[in-house]
From TrEMBL:
This is Aspartate aminotransferase family protein. The keyword Transmembrane does not apply. InterPro entries: Aminotrans_3, PyrdxlP-dep_Trfase, PyrdxlP-dep_Trfase_major, PyrdxlP-dep_Trfase_small. Its cofactor is pyridoxal 5'-phosphate. It holds the Pfam family Aminotran_3. Belongs to the class-III pyridoxal-phosphate-dependent aminotransferase family. GO terms for molecular function: pyridoxal phosphate binding; transaminase activity. It comes from the Bacteria. SUPFAM superfamilies: PLP-dependent transferases (SSF53383). Keywords: Aminotransferase, Pyridoxal phosphate, Transferase.
C-alpha cells in the first residue's frame, strides 16, 4: 500500500484486448484483468443487457422462495451445461464466497447424511482458493496464509501426487475427510497444469474414501480451458464445481457452486428439510445474472470455446520463443489459454521483486502481464488473435532484458 500510494496506474477504458490509461496510452491486456475478461473489454451487449435489466428490476434478494427471471434462466442454463447429472446451482458474488459456500455445503452434506465426523478439507500446495475464511485456510501458497488462526480441520498435500493424497486420507483416518479441493490447472500459484491422469486418479481415490471432489474452476471455466466448466476435457465428474470470473467475464461480480444431484439430495428431496442457512444479499442479483446471460450468448455466438482450443497452442508457442532468455528457466502452458514463464531462482533469491519489475517493464512496452511469486502469468481474453502475440512477445522480451 505504501509503495503505490502516490503511483497509481489509472485505467480509464477497455476495448476488446486493449486497455487505455488516463494519459491515453494503450496496453495489450494479456491477463484479462485477473484471469476473467474472457470475451474481451467493452462488449456493448453486456452493458445493454445490464442496463435493460436495471430498468426492469435492478436488484432484489433471493432468500426463501424469492426469485427473478434472469436468476432462474441463468441457473437453468448453467445446470444444463454443467458436466454433472441433476446439477443444482447456488449463486453468490465472487470466487472466495463460492469456495466458502462449497466448504460449508460439504460439511453440512455429511451432517445431513449421518457422517458428521467428516469435517476435514484437503487442498493442494500452490493452490489459490480466494482470500475469505475457508479459502485462506485452504491456500497452498504460503504467502497467502495470513491472519491466523485459520478455519480448523484443513490440510494441504503435494499438488501433483495422487499417492500423497491417498496417504493423507489414510493418515487422517476413515470417515474424517469431507472434501478435496483442486483447480484443474493451478492458476495464481504459478499456472501448473495437472500431470497426465492426475485428476482421473484423484476422482477414483475420492470415491474409494467417500470424499467429495470439489473442482475450483474459478479461472478454468467459461472457455479458459476450451470448455464450460474447465473439467470436461479430463472426463472427470466432480461432486461440486466452483465458478466465478468468466461466468460474467468479470463485467459484474457473480459466482456460484454447481452440485451433483447426490450432493443436492439432502437439501432438496425432503420438503421438510431444514434450509441451508447460507447466502448473500446479492445472491441471484438480477443485473449480475443478466450480465452472465449476455456473456454466455457471446461465448456461444462468437465460438470462443472453439477459439480457445486453438489459442492455447498459439499462446504456448509464442511463450516458448522466450525460453532462450537468461531470466527464464521454464515455460509452462498448453492446457487452456494459460501460460507462465518461470524466472531464474538465483535471480529471484537475490531479488523477490523480480516478477513485479519485469511486469512493470513489460507494461512500459505496452503489455499487461501478471507477476506471480516466481513467475510471470498470461491469460489473455479469448478474443486475442495471433497477430497480438508478436506485440506480447516483444514487450515481454524487452521487459526481461531491461531488468536483466
Ligand atoms: C482458483 C481460484 N479460486 C478462487 C478465487 C477467488 O475468487 P475471488 O477473487 O472472486 O474471490 C480465485 C481468484 O483468483 C481463483 O483463481
Amino acid at each position: 500500500m505504501g509503495a503505490v500510494r502516490r503511483a497509481e496506474f489509472v485505467l480509464t477504458r477497455g476495448d476488446d484486448v486493449w486497455l487505455f490509461d488516463e494519459g491515453g496510452s494503450r496496453y495489450l491486456d494479456a491477463t484479462a484483468s485477473l484471469w476473467c475478461v474472457n470475451v474481451g473489454h467493452g462488449r456493448r451487449e453486456i452493458a445493454d443487457a445490464v442496463a435493460a435489466q436495471m430498468r426492469e428490476l435492478a436488484t432484489y434478494q433471493t432468500f426463501g422462495d424469492i426469485a427473478n427471471p434472469p436468476a432462474l434462466e441463468l441457473t437453468r442454463r448453467l445446470a444444463a451445461l454443467a458436466p454433472v447429472p441433476g446439477a443444482k446451482i447456488f449463486l453468490v458474488n465472487g470466487g472466495g464466497d463460492a469456495i466458502d459456500t462449497a466448504a460449508k455445503l460439504a460439511r453440512e452434506y455429511f451432517v445431513r447424511t449421518g457422517e458428521s465426523e467428516r469435517t476435514v478439507l484437503v487442498s493442494r500446495e500452490h493452490s489459490y482458493h480466494g482470500t475469505q475464511g475457508f479459502g485462506t485456510a485452504l491456500a497452498g501458497m504460503p504467502g497467502n496464509r495470513i491472519a491466523a488462526p485459520f478455519v480448523p480441520d484443513v490440510s494441504v498435500v503435494a499438488h501433483d501426487d495422487p499417492a500423497a493424497l491417498e496417504a493423507e486420507f489414510e493418515r487422517l483416518g476413515p470417515g474424517r475427510v469431507a472434501a478435496f479441493f483442486a483447480e484443474p490447472v493451478i492458476g495464481a500459484g504459478g499456472v501448473l497444469p495437472p500431470p497426465p491422469g492426475y485428476l482421473e486418479r484423484v476422482r477414483e481415490i475420492c470415491d474409494r474414501h467417500g470424499v467429495l471432489f470439489v473442482v475450483d474452476s474459478v479461472i478454468c471455466g467459461f472457455g479458459r480451458l476450451g470448455d464450460w466448466f474447465g473439467i470436461e476435457r479430463f472426463g472427470v465428474v466432480p461432486d461440486m464445481i466452483v465458478f466465478a470470473k468468466g461466468v460474467t467475464s468479470g463485467y459484474l461480480p457473480l459466482s456460484g457452486v454447481v452440485t451433483h444431484e447426490r450432493v443436492a439430495a439432502p437439501f432438496w428431496d425432503d420438503p421438510a428439510a431444514a434450509p441451508f442457512r447460507h447466502g448473500a444479499t446479492y445472491s441471484g442479483h438480477p443485473a449480475a445474472c443478466a450480465a452472465a446471460l449476455a456473456n454466455l450468448d457471446i461465448l456461444e455466438g462468437d465460438g470462443l470455446l472453439k477459439r480457445a482450443e486453438d489459442l492455447e497452442g498459439e499462446l504456448h508457442a509464442a511463450l516458448r520463443t522466450l525460453a532462450d532468455h537468461p531470466l527464464v528457466t521454464e515455460v509452462r502452458g498448453g492446457t487452456g489459454v494459460l501460460g507462465a514463464l518461470e524466472l531464474a531462482p538465483e535471480r529471484l533469491g537475490a531479488d523477490p521483486t523480480l516478477p513485479a519489475r519485469v511486469a512493470r517493464a513489460a507494461r512500459e512496452r505496452g503489455a499487461l502481464i501478471r507477476p506471480m511469486t516466481s513467475a510471470l502469468g498470461f491469460s489473455p481474453p479469448l478474443t486475442l488473435r495471433e497477430e497480438h502475440l508478436d506485440l506480447l512477445v516483444d514487450a515481454v522480451r524487452g521487459g526481461l532484458s531491461a531488468v536483466l
